[in-house]
Write a structure and sequence with these properties.
Length: 511
């Protein structure tokens, strides 16, 4: 116990230190690397402490302002360390275009929260913080993709829902395969998960012993052919918090994780081992366990904020208008998660990794599926445990537990992709998903973020709705057909979906 107790204390001491002297920054504030082996030992002895240790370390890592000593930035070329514009023109030895892995943008920042900042740390971002990416290295500014910063709250629920829905879809495919093997007759299976339709998959037997089946994937809708739901990023390109974060650290901060690049110096800045395997575990746990977005109505019901009668009834009417206009067909108000335990590494084969991107076995780096850092999404979130006027404490950070032990997740998404029409198209289809195809963006917290949409071009919620086209055209038209009062009510309902941080929480950190 003792030998990790010391490390744990020193991490906490750093937290206090940085809270106390916010004005000056020094190297000493850079968080020490997290040791996955140490985390594993803690998991074996006291899983709850391992979770809190990882959460606190992830907090430090997202807040830290990294320096060149730790490898922030990159050798871009032309003696530059950072660049807001992707520079595929810089092709000399060790320059931007030759970094490993291939660069999509930046590096353009020294901390995570310098972008994730609206309305608070870990939040979304204003347009000044938009990121330009050029994943295909086209080098043509008109074809750069523009991305507004997303918030990082409660991402564990998102990954867990994606894991469960992926499992459901894959079980339907496997049942089809078994049926076709048994009967020898071609067959088609409708695909659904949590009440959301994903088209259908066909199968035909092409060999009897052992049975082999050819799938017809043309009917699959809204998800990749492997049926893995990838909920992260505006475009839905990543399945896990961990994988997305590895990319963010590389592209935005110029920090290459060991699990991405091994011992190599992928960005030619003279620093290796810029983020450890333990660092990535801590970051994933931290964002997974951040407090969930809430609503003004919920906060008012607890006496935390005031809500006038007129505003409250506008929100209630707006919720009805939202349903009537068909918004909820994509922005599904809530889903039930059957198993609320989040674990890192994930137990789901398509979400955990056997082989890391650097080619090493995950096990060799201490990532054991059977011995994960884990927590309960309905109970364990450390933030937003709020003391009410009557002295009782409500855990507003945690998701509501359902009667059968699941979690109620109010995420306002169907976790599938839709064709959204020309007004929302990227200038180029960089991922082969379709330039105008996007997964339904969650509306959880949407009243506290903005500007809205993938490129942040909507400065009001009204503009964001009006930009909807394609599969959402009928719903947009239903919204436009509402009276001005009903449209205002609908917007009031969206503005009620807020991100809230307990203002008293900071004080607990102070000495
Ligand atoms: C330069 C600004 C910037 C910095 C710095 C930055 N991010 Fe982001 N982040 C973004 C943008 C923009 C997006 C949306 C990207 C997209 O969809 O392609 C995003 C998205 C994410 C997401 C996906 C959220 C979701 O719901 O899909 C995660 C996770 C994330 N960032 C974590 C981090 C972490 C951790 C760091 C620090 C290591 C970091 N980011 C640094 C701008 C930034
Ligand atoms: C066919 C599915 C679909 C329907 C129907 C739909 N949306 Fe959306 N919505 C999306 C997608 C996809 C995005 C992300 C688009 C983008 O950023 O390019 C989005 C984005 C949004 C955003 C911006 C979120 C943010 O964080 O920037 C708001 C607000 C929104 N929708 C509200 C509504 C309302 C209100 C309705 C009903 C009038 C509605 N949507 C109907 C799919 C849909």
């Amino acid at each position: 116990m003792a030998h990790w107790g010391i490390t744990h204390t020193s991490v906490l001491a750093l937290a206090v230190f940085s809270a106390g002297v916010a004005v000056t920054r020094s190297l000493a504030e850079e968080p020490p690397p997290v040791d996955q082996g140490l985390l594993n030992e803690m998991v074996a002895h006291d899983p709850a402490e391992a979770f809190i240790y990882a959460f606190d370390a992830g907090d430090e890592l997202t807040e830290a302002t990294f320096t060149s000593e730790r490898g922030v930035g990159a050798y871009v070329g032309e003696l530059l360390r950072f660049t807001r514009m992707p520079r595929p023109d810089l092709t000399g030895p060790g320059e931007w275009s030759q970094h490993l892995p291939m660069r999509e943008g930046g590096p353009n920042a020294t901390s995570c929260i310098s972008c994730h900042s609206v309305p608070t740390a870990n939040g979304a971002g204003g347009v000044a913080l938009n990121v330009l990416v050029d994943p295909l290295h086209i080098g043509e500014p008109a074809q750069y993709l523009e991305r507004n910063t997303l918030h990082l709250f409660a991402l564990g629920a998102v990954q867990r829902l994606a894991e469960e829905m992926t499992g459901d879809l894959q079980r339907q495919r496997d049942a089809l395969e078994a049926r076709v093997c048994e009967s020898g007759e071609p067959d088609v299976q409708a695909l659904t998960a949590n009440g959301v339709a994903f088209g259908s998959i066909g199968a035909e037997r092409i060999a009897e012993v052992p049975c082999q089946v050819a799938f017809d994937t043309d009917g699959i809708e809204g998800v990749d052919e492997d049926l893995v739901i990838r909920p992260f990023g505006w475009k839905g390109t990543h399945a896990t918090i961990r994988a997305f974060t590895r990319g963010a650290a590389h592209n935005e901060l110029g920090m290459q994780a060991v699990e991405l690049i091994g011992d190599a110096d992928g960005d030619f800045d003279g620093v290796t081992n810029e983020l450890t395997v333990g660092d990535l575990t801590a970051l994933a746990i931290y964002m997974a366990a951040l407090e969930r977005p809430t609503s003004l109505v919920e906060l008012a019901d607890h006496g935390i904020v005031e809500l006038g009668d007129e505003q409250r009834s506008a929100i209630t009417r707006g919720e009805q208008a939202f349903a009537d206009a068909g918004c909820g067909s994509c922005h599904v108000p809530s889903m039930t998660l059957r198993d609320p335990m989040f674990q890192e590494p994930s137990a789901h084969p398509d979400f955990g990794e056997v082989i890391l991107p650097n080619g090493d076995e995950a096990e060799a780096h201490g990532l054991h599926v059977a011995q994960p850092v884990s927590f309960d999404l309905t109970a364990d979130q450390p933030n937003n445990q709020i003391e009410l006027a009557d002295g009782s404490v409500v855990n507003l950070g945690a998701f509501e537990r359902t009667a059968d032990g699941g979690a109620l997740i109010r995420w306002y998404s169907d976790f599938r992709r839709h064709e959204m029409g020309p007004a929302l198209a990227d200038p180029v289809d960089a991922f082969g998903i379709g330039a105008a195809v996007w997964p339904t963006r969650s509306l959880a917290g949407v009243g506290s973020t903005g500007p809205w949409l993938h490129n942040g071009h909507a400065t009001t919620l009204h503009e964001a709705i009006v930009a909807h086209g394609g599969e959402a055209a009928a719903s947009r038209d239903a919204y436009l057909a509402l009276s001005a009062e009903s449209r205002a009510d609908l917007v009031a309902f969206l503005e009620n979906l807020v991100i809230y941080n307990d203002p008293n929480a900071e004080e607990e950190d102070d000495p």
